[in-house]
Structure formats: C-alpha cells, structure tokens
Amino acid sequence: MFTIKLLLFIVPLVISSRIDQDNSSFDSVSPEPKSRFAMLDDVKILANGLLQLGHGLKDFVHKTKGQINDIFQKLNIFDQSFYDLSLQTSEIKEEEKELRRTTYKLQVKNEEVKNMSLELNSKLESLLEEKILLQQKVKYLEEQLTNLIQNQPETPEHPEVTSLKSFVEKQDNSIKDLLQTVEEQYKQLNQQHSQIKEIENQLRMTNIQEPTEISLSSKPRAPRTTPFLQLNEIRNVKHDGSPWTLIQHRIDGSQNFNETWENYKYGFGRLDGEFWLGLEKIYSIVKQSNYVLRIELEDWKDNKHYIEYSFYLGNHETNYTLHVVKITGNVPNAIPENKDLVFSTWDHKAKGHFSCPESYSGGWWWHDECGENNLNGKYNKPRTKSKPERRRGLSWKSQNGRLYSIKSTKMLIHPTDSESFE
After folding, report:
1. Do the beta carbons of residue 259 and residue 219 sit within 8 Å?
2. Whole-number Å distance between alpha carbons of 175 and 60
3. What does the record note on quaternary structure (predicted)?
C-alpha cells in the first residue's frame, strides 16, 4: 500500500518535470545531448519508482501468504477439534447405551430380589407358626412332666422322658437357628433391594429413559411380578372316573404367558382360571412314577380334540428336557415324538434354540427348529388376520398344514399304574 502511494507521488513529479523540460525547449534551444540526458534521468526515476513498487508488491504477496497460512492452520485446528468432539460424542453415546443396559439389568435384579423377599417372608411366617406350635407342645409336655414329678417325687425320671425333653430342646434350638438364618438373609435382601432402589433413583436423575415397549421379535420384556404358585397348590380334575393333575390351562387370555424362566420354573396364574403349574412341581410329581401326558384342545368352532403320550421329563440341569411317545388321540402333528425337546423362554435360551421364544412368544419345549405348535403362546381372539401373528399365538397345525387358532387348552398328567384310561 505504501509503494502504491509512493508511485502515485513520483509519477506526477516525472510528468511535471517532463512538461517543464518541454516548455523550456520553447524558450531556448538547447543542444541535442543535454535533452537526451534529461530524458535518461526521467527514465531512471520512473524505473526506480517501478522497482520500489515491485518490492512493495513482493512484500504484500509474502504478507498475504503468511495470513493465508495462518488461516489454513486455524482451519486444521478447527477440523481436529471437530473430529475430537465427534469421538467424544460417540463415546458418550456408547456410555449411555451401557448405562441403559445396566439400568435394565438392575431392574431385573430388583424384581428377582422382590420375589425372593416374598418367598422368604412366606417361609418365615410358616416357620414362626411351626415354632409357636412346637412351643405349645413343649409347654404341654413340661406341664405333664411337672405333674409327674410332683405326684412321684421319689421316682427317678424315666429315660424316655429325658430323651424326649432332649429331642424337643434340640428341635427348638434348630428352629431358632433356622429363624435367625432366615432373618439375616431377609435383612440382606432388604439391603440389596434398598441399594438397587437408590441406584435406580440416581439413574432417573440423569434423565435416561428406558424403552417402554420392547418388541417380542427383538428384545424380551422385563420380568413380571406374578406371584409363584405355592408347592401345595395342585388342581385335580376327573377324567374317565380317575383324577388327573392339571398342569396347564388356557381359557380366555386373562393371564400373560410370555413369562420369565423363573416363573415358568415355579408356576404362575390362578388355579381357578389360567395358570401354569411350574416345571419344578411337574418334575417333582412325575419323577416318583411313570406318568401319561394328556393334551385337550378346543377350537373356536367348539370342536374338541385330545392326544395322550407316555413321556419322560428331565430336571432343571437338562432344561426340563421332554421326550414323548404317542399312545392315542385324534390330533396329528402334535409334539414331535422320540426327540429331546428343550424348554426355553425369552430370558433363558438353551444352546441351539436361539429365537424360538422370541419369535413365537411364551415358554415351550422346542427342538432343533421352531415348530408351529405352541400352547403357551399369545392368546389370540378369532379372526386374527396375519399368519405370522397366528403362528406367534396359541395355535396348532393340522395334518393338512393349515394353522388353527385355539380357544382353550388343558395339559394333564396321570400315573400309569392307576386305573386304565382311554
């Protein structure tokens, strides 16, 4: 900029000097060599000005290049900062996903702790009742012993009485120890429950919302709080004059059968409505003798069908593996015969049975591929439109390959050494 101003200052001087020289030429005639030297001086002045202008332009270019380099450096720093920020954003998202998974696991543990607390509370109450009864018996025995001692002061204590007192005292001590152990476990469970509640509250403070609905075909639901059926709760029904133990009943869809492994293990529902007796109870019954499994079906046209199997049921270590052989019945293509069928739920999948409980809903005995028959699926009302929806529900596949929705089901067991059956 300085060079340009200098040039603008020099050029008028050169032009003015040239005009003065021209005017002087009119006044006096100078020799030819002198005029030539004057023009040479003008050229030198002009060349010097142009040279200074070139140096100024060169400095200006260098300065502009330095400014452009500074701008590029700042842009590179901005790009690096933006990249680092994107990496931090990705890490925050991953941490958020992990926190959601942790929250879900904590909720599952919380429900398990709740169920264990209820079960321990029930056992504690029963133990307290037994303790009261034993104390009453001990008190009665002490009164009897006191009367015997008062009536026969000189007679030595009978050995049987002494052993009975010792036995009662041992029983009382054992019950006290057991009650103390149960109380300690109950306190520990309550502490864990409080800790889980506190962690859940802290997670809620971070405004992270858990998914309210989870698709049946993608992720499982959180465990429900359906209370377990008690061990002494068994419903017997009459068939051909002999009692059968009812282990499953579906009639109206009032009970959600898409339950957890824990609930399928110990049972859920109501004996006067829809229920599942529980795999552990079924196993404890059938391991005592040989049993027959009977399945009764009724479709929405009130057509009734049945089928009976001789069967074997494994324990929890085998995932309650079921092996059946057909005896009689009018339902074809029922449970696969002569195969080891493994029981699975959405939260407990046996190896090799990856997506059956998620795709079909409910817990059931599956083989190496998902079948079309599932008595613990979702209860669908009549006129369910799509075939996939019917397949995921309570359904049975006929011999001709047509899929029928089922209105009601019963699963019953009966020992083979009892009266004859159909």
Report:
1. no
2. 100
3. Interacts with ANGPTL8. Interacts with ITGB3.
